[in-house]
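User: For a benchmark we're assembling, each entry needs the component sequences followed by a predicted structure for the full assembly. Here are entry 17's components. Please fill in the structure.
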Amino acid sequence: MKVSAIITLKKDVLDPQGKVIQQALDGMGFKDVNEVRQGKYFEIDVKEDDPKKSRKIVEDMCNKLLANLVIEDYKIIEIQ
Amino acid sequence: MKVSAIITLKKDVLDPQGKVIQQALDGMGFKDVNEVRQGKYFEIDVKEDDPKKSRKIVEDMCNKLLANLVIEDYKIIEIQ
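Assistant: Structure for entry 17:
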C-alpha cells in the first residue's frame, strides 16, 4: 500500500526557510500572508496489504529515520 | 485561513532523493519497500477568511513560485 506522511517542524521551532519563501511571495505581490511553514512529504509504497500494518511500518520509519522528533512532528495523511 | 499544499515530482520524473531514502531504510532493516518518493509540503496562512479564495491564492502561489510545473505537480490537501 502507498502511505503518505508529512513531516513538519514543531510549532515553536523557527522555520527560516518558510520565512524566505514568505519574503519571496511578498516580493511577487502576495502581500496578505501571515506565515509560511515548510515541511517534507513522503510517499512510501510498502509490500503490505493491510492498512493498519502499513501505517505501523511507516510510523516506525518516521520514528527511526525520517523525522527528527526533537524538533519535528510527523503525521500519516493517507493510506491507499 | 491555513492552506496546506503538497508538491511532488511528476510520476515519470526520477526521484534520486527518494531512492537514497529507500536504500537507507533498507539498510535499517525495512526490506519490504517498493518505492519512496519525496516531496515538499507547505502550510500557508493567508489573510483571507473564504476557503475558496484562500485555495485560489495558494494555487496561484504554486503556479508562480512554489512548484516547477515542468517536472512537479501540486495538490491542495487541507484548508482550515
